[in-house]
């Protein structure tokens, strides 16, 4: 059995307002090529297929076009599970239709964990792979919350709910395996934050749960799993040092700050006498770069890139001490007529001034700050004592998480 594991495509995601459809399309075409070349039997996409719960028509077109071409690569089965960015009901809506292409979609958990169990059979009808296709487990799916409980209690119960779900899947998988009468390999999916996992600045991973401390211990997953295909963390990584428990990571850089970090998909061969995994690097379809420095360093670097004929998307971080009131105009004048494109300018001098002083100065913009900067600034401005801050911060994060997870199509 040859499996390809990927996740966190975030189709439709923009970068500082810039659309990235050309990159998504290039990635999906490249992936079809890899599936054919490596003679992959099963494709697993472990959540965050789309960036939002209401994907654009263009993002949907890329997705369905890819799925239609999947079988032609020789890949016989597809498994798609919902992530925290996906709308479960949106993913599930075409599930019956897609099952005719042998593509299995699990947008959200149902009353019966058995619905997540998929037994794939070979051309002769013999069972060859068992997949526990667990999607992102949302707090409302697990229904473990009670009114008035503390944040810590909520998190403890959530972890317990996730643990229980995987335990049930393990029991069911064991039973299905003995029914099959042979030692069929088991692959499980998940879209969650495993304890010890790494995130990096600029990689665009959004907190899954309020408090974000709900990290799932490696002992949560049943022993019968031969390969665990996880999504949610955007940097490729193993779980607990185990080669067969992995995050594939996102295929595309989520910001110019991430440029240069290797992106990959995971090729897993369970058919060989010795099972093995291999990371297949994803090419960078769009050059990107973050350039940091004072005015002369920025100018020198930009000119260097222009000379090289680069068509990169650039994020500028100005950290000079000199006040440059016309920073944007000066930078744009440098790149005018070249292939370079400046997507964003972050003026650290302005950010520092804004965070340190009580008054706004001309030229400051909310765009320079992230949402938590603004909130801390707000607490400072109202002289909120430190003792009250953690609770206010939690309430604020709860509100943000609720805004993020709103699913207009649900119900
Ligand atoms: Mn993601």
Largest sheet: 6 strands, mixed
Spatial sequence of strands, sheet with the most strands: 4-3-2-1-11-12
CATH class of the largest domain: Alpha Beta
- Cα-atom Rg, whole angstroms? 23 Å
Described by the principal axes of the CA atoms, the overall outline is globular
Mean pLDDT: 86
CATH-level-4 superfamily name of the largest domain: Metallo-dependent phosphatases
In angstroms, what separates the terminal alpha carbons? 38 Å
What is the annotated CATH architecture of the largest domain? 4-Layer Sandwich
CATH topology of the largest domain: Purple Acid Phosphatase, chain A, domain 2
Classify the secondary structure makeup into a structural class: alpha/beta
Low-confidence runs (pLDDT<50, min 5 residues)? 359-364
What is the secondary structure topology, with strand pairs?
Blueprint: E1 2-6, H1 21-37, E2 42-46, H2 57-70, E3 77-81, H3 88-92, H4 95-99, E4 103-106, E5 117-121, E6 127-132, H5 139-142, H6 151-180, E7 186-191, E8 227-231, E9 237-239, E10 242-247, E11 264-269, E12 276-281, E13 288-293, H7 295-307, E14 313-318, H8 327-335, E15 341-347, H9 348-356, H10 371-381, H11 389-405
Parallel strand pairs: 1-2, 2-3, 3-4, 6-7, 7-8, 8-10, 13-14, 14-15
Antiparallel strand pairs: 1-11, 5-6, 9-10, 11-12
The structure holds manganese (II) ion.
Description:
The two termini are 38 Å apart. Helix 1 (21-37) runs parallel beside helix 2. This protein has 411 residues and is α/β, with parallel strands linked by helices. The chain has 11 helices and 15 strands. Strands 4-3-2-1-11-12 form a 6-stranded mixed β-sheet. Residues 8, 48, 83, 85, 232, 234 line the site of manganese (II) ion.
